[in-house]
From TrEMBL:
Residue intervals of the 3-beta hydroxysteroid dehydrogenase/isomerase domain: 13-283
Gene: HSD3B7
Protein's cellular compartments: Endoplasmic reticulum membrane
Catalysed reaction, written as an equation: (25R)-cholest-5-en-3beta,7alpha,26-triol + NAD(+) = (25R)-7alpha,26-dihydroxycholest-4-en-3-one + NADH + H(+); (24S)-7alpha-dihydroxycholesterol + NAD(+) = (24S)-7alpha,24-dihydroxycholest-4-en-3-one + NADH + H(+); 7alpha,25-dihydroxycholesterol + NAD(+) = 7alpha,25-dihydroxy-4-cholesten-3-one + NADH + H(+); 7alpha-hydroxycholesterol + NAD(+) = 7alpha-hydroxycholest-4-en-3-one + NADH + H(+)
Record protein name field: 3 beta-hydroxysteroid dehydrogenase type 7
Chain segments annotated as transmembrane: 290-309
Pathway given in the UniProt record: Steroid biosynthesis; Lipid metabolism; steroid biosynthesis
Any coiled-coil regions, as ranges: none
Length: 369
């Protein structure tokens, strides 16, 4: 992609560019992709911060649109060289119906693929998820595995099922001829649990801790490792993949890459305390305060209440049988595939990632006062 005639000639489209990860990818592209001429940000809900980006040297075009509408996607994509497809409905709490999750995550992805073919966009990077692999419904641990580690991936929940289907569509589309006759080159990135500035669930835990007098209560044993990766490094991986996909199409086309960095292996709660601790919260209990069977019972009750109350109101607490199973099953990755295939090294050290996230939580504190 980088011959001199093409310097500052590339048009990128980022779907979901106003979400948590999307905003980081958009900002990272503007900082780290010198060949960018135009950056199109496509999202159902455009953030007000997008306007601030319009004063720089790169043309930033904000497009309010819906990935489930094929014609809107195709119109937005016309003339784009690369599409980074991040838009998705991230719902493990039962807020949206399985049908809506499927429409956005699977049909939306199919629309992006068809738009590539129709408009001649040759490079497609898809944001998949660790949940395409697991944890599975049997609760099997995935301990520091890599892209080739055998694992029985069985999905029942609509979100991982939709991500797995969408990822398969993207990988199978690799090599399809796009308008003009060139082959489509696709690949999928699988982040583990992303953290960093803008992370809604971290914000929720922080506010919950404040409401409980500065305390959170341990629910998950410290021995259960949960994979986490800093949002800045996930964004950097997206930028690098998009950049390298043309030169290394034969190697990278149709491939999947876990997103990883040097964040430590810890339980979900202990990891959150790396940021919430310095902001004044305390995790009470060296071991879970409630026995696991009681948590399962509470999670089941929550699911039942959600079902009963659905005609009247939306009851969607953090704890349900699915989130409990994910939080309580070891799932961590240890791989260097991205480094081998496209020279990825984390842009942010663990210390930087931690400091940036702590500063962001501290800013939440001061903005709440
Ligand atoms: N957050 C995580 O820990 C995590 C981990 C692994 C993978 N992912 C994946 O990363 C992607 C981004 O996740 P996120 O955490 O930034 O979520 P997010 O909800 O913050 O961002 C998703 C964005 O997609 C947009 N969107 C939703 N439906 C749309 C539609 N129909 N048309 C156009 N835009 C639409 C939303 O408005 C939002 O801006 C998702 O595909 C998700 O599956 C997230
Ligand atoms: C049992 C309670 C004390 C804690 C509940 C925490 C729960 C809400 C958290 C734990 C793990 C989190 C998921 C995990 O980090 C990875 C992903 C993948 C991504 O594609 C979407 C988000 C998701 C499912 C996180 C959602 C929140 C979870 C379940």
């Amino acid at each position: 992609m980088a011959n001199s005639a093409q310097a500052q000639k590339l048009v990128y489209l980022v779907t979901g560019g106003c979400g948590f990860l999307g905003e980081h990818v958009v900002r990272m592209l503007l900082q780290q992709e010198p060949r960018l001429r135009e950056l199109r940000i496509f999202d159902l809900h455009l953030g007000p911060w997008v306007d601030e980006l319009k004063t720089g040297p790169v043309q930033v075009t904000a497009i309010q649109g819906d990935v489930t509408q094929a014609h809107e996607v195709a119109a937005a994509m016309d003339g784009a060289h690369v599409v980074i497809h991040i838009a998705g409905l991230v719902d493990v709490f039962g807020r949206a119906s399985p049908k809506t999750i499927h429409e956005v995550n699977v049909q939306g992805t199919q629309n992006v693929i068809e738009a590539c073919v129709q408009t001649g966009t040759q490079f497609l990077v898809y944001t998949s998820s660790m949940e395409v692999v697991g944890p599975n419904i049997k609760g099997h641990p995935f301990y520091r595995g890599n892209e080739d580690t055998p694992y029985e991936a069985v999905h029942k929940h609509p979100y991982p099922r939709s991500k797995a289907l969408a990822e398969r569509l993207v990988l199978e589309a690799n090599g399809r001829k796009v308008r003009g006759g060139l082959p489509l080159v696709t690949c999928a990135l699988r982040p583990t649990g992303i953290y960093g500035e803008g992370h809604q669930i971290m914000r929720d835990f922080y506010h919950q801790g404040l409401r409980l007098g500065g305390r959170l209560f341990r629910a998950i044993p410290t021995s259960v490792e949960h994979g986490r990766v800093y949002v800045g490094n996930v964004a950097w991986m997206h930028v690098l993949v998009a950049r390298e996909l043309e030169q290394r199409a034969a190697l990278m086309g149709g491939q999947v890459y876990f997103c990883y960095d040097r964040s430590p292996y810890k339980s979900y709660e202990d990891f959150n305390m790396e940021f919430l601790g310095p902001c004044g919260l305390r995790l009470v209990g060296a071991r879970p305060l409630l026995p696991y069977w009681l948590l399962v019972l509470l999670a089941t009750l929550n699911a039942l209440l959600q079902w009963l109350l659905r005609p009247l109101l939306l009851y969607a607490p953090l704890l349900n049988p699915y989130t409990l199973a994910v939080a309580n099953t070891t799932f961590t990755v240890s791989t260097n595939k991205a480094q081998r295939h496209f020279g990825y090294e984390p842009l942010f050290s663990w210390e930087d990632s931690r400091t940036r996230t702590i500063r962001w939580v501290q800013a939440l504190e001061s903005s709440a006062q």
